[in-house]
Amino acid sequence: MTSLLKLENCKVRYGAVEAVRGINLEIRKGEIVALLGANGAGKSSTMNAIAGLTPVAEGKVWFEGRDITDLDPEEIPISGLTLSPEGRRVFGTLSVDDNLRMGAYAIRDKASIQTARERVFDLFPILAERRNQYAGTLSGGQQQMLAIGRALMCNPRLLLLDEPSLGLAPLIVEQVFVLIEKLRDEGSTIFLVEQNVTGALQIADRAYMMASGLIRSEGTAEEMRTGDMAASYLVGH
Ligand code: ATP
Question: Which of 68, 95, 153, 162 could form a disulfide with 104 if both were Cys (CB 3.0 to 4.6 A apart)?
């Protein structure tokens, strides 16, 4: 399988704190890969560094063979990679439709924006129904759908999702996971941060387990489900 994203010895620092301490990982085309680990393990720092929101202190980020380590955050979606950040940050005082349009800021071609918008409405019929409503009036689950929809507006070849299940009711979490699988089945590649280890390993092809800024184990979802690291993590939580 073709490698889409590659991290080489990446480090992220906040002043004296080294949140990511030199990690290597690879995402191949067509996969769902989960990045697992407890609070503070460095998962969001890794995602934000890939998306250009946090500087990479050392190491390299390669996307489709191109060095994107030092690209500005607004250039990253143009290169084909978007992040739906933790905490489903939708613009509450803008309509659903305007939130989606903002997701397409990197796209100049109006027809492509229209096609992306229709795809989002196909994936999330509830967003089509509520397209003129303020995003702040949506339920938590619907806001999460909107946050994912917004990230899809640039037609990314790689979608990064930071904790899409956070704070959602179990039934909604299940719907979000089903949707992520559907996106993969339609050809997207997804890199997913999750604290919901059981749910993530049900849909992921492979997973990396992070602790204290390092990758502690990696493998297929099956290996991670049965491996010592996953077991100790699950017991500890
Ligand atoms: P969570 O699930 O809680 O978001 P995480 O695995 O995503 O956890 P990070 O948010 O990447 O972990 O945090 C890794 C470490 O970096 C933590 O010790 C955290 O306190 C620290 N950290 C994160 N962001 C900052 C920041 N902006 N300034 C200083 N330290 C930070």
Answer: 153
